[in-house]
Amino acid sequence: MPYQPSFQTTPHLLKVLEEIAGLSARIKDAAVGVSWIPSLQKDAAARQAHGSTAIEGNPLTLEEVKVLAEGGSLPEAKPRSIQEVLNYFAALRFVTKSAKAKEVGVRDVLKLHSIIGQKGALDRGPLGLFRPFAVRVGDHLPPPAKEVPGLMKDLLAWINGSGRAWPAVVSSAILHYQFEYIHPFGDGNGRVGRALAAWELYRRQFDTYHIFAVDEVLLEDRKGYYRAFHRAQSEKHELTGWVEYIAEAANEALRRAWSRIEAVSLSTKGEQLILSPKQEKLLTLLRMGPKSIKEIQDSLGVTKPGAHHVLKPLLDAEIIRREGGHKTGKYRIV
What we know:
Layout: H1 11-30, H2 37-55, H3 62-69, H4 79-97, H5 106-117, H6 148-160, H7 168-182, H8 189-203, H9 214-220, H10 222-234, H11 240-266, H12 277-287, H13 293-300, H14 304-316, E1 320-323, E2 330-333
Antiparallel strand pairs: 1-2
Helix pairs in contact: 1-11, 2-3, 2-4, 2-9, 4-5, 4-8, 5-8, 6-7, 7-8, 7-11, 9-11, 10-11, 11-12, 13-14
């Protein structure tokens, strides 16, 4: 039987998709012909690699992942942890080079698994092949091994066919869920599933410049991510809540990408400034109006010295400024 996902286009989903469309258009317009796109692409790849591998328990920090992205070494880190990240970078290069692929086939999925699991980065094989055995993941009992090839074929037929009628964020979310439900490999399913979800966004020309990182958002809300998946399972694969959740994550990733673009384009000193999550949150806060240091502390959940630490790079880059007296001063975007 052909795969046909069950979900509803709720008013909330339509609202989020509308916000996504607006942000995506602004990002595409702002990114035309600018010189700093490669630095944002490298930053986004590091955030994707860190997010997806950390969700699975990789202990490397974002800063350490960025060292690897620059070709640096981490002598104190475990070789397995390093290899997982390097493999994910390779997987992202694979899907980026294949961004114009008209279809995704079984061979592509197997290839992606072989990249992510190469050089001993999996606990269990076989590498680049569907599992020939039963698996259990917590409370989730995936379909029997003999059903995996047919289920994957049906899923890819939907993605390459009728799935194209839906917005890219929707088809990517459904691909992500159904892949994880099938759990076609002995290990590495989470990383492969998220890479496939990103590839769907690239293929559908949603993230043309590859400068945002959904996996970073999923990592920060890992419990919510798992909760949304298990809820869909408990509701017999009714995917409305799951699609809404992934759309919200994509929307947040786009907001962060826009903040990074603003940080670079607003800098009057021509210096590259890569924002931390707290700095991105601060810029979002200041777009709603000037804020005092106390309001910034409360919103970011930091101490006064912590707030000043977040503020200083933005002040130095002349992206924000402080106005008013010693006790009544507020910060605003320039």
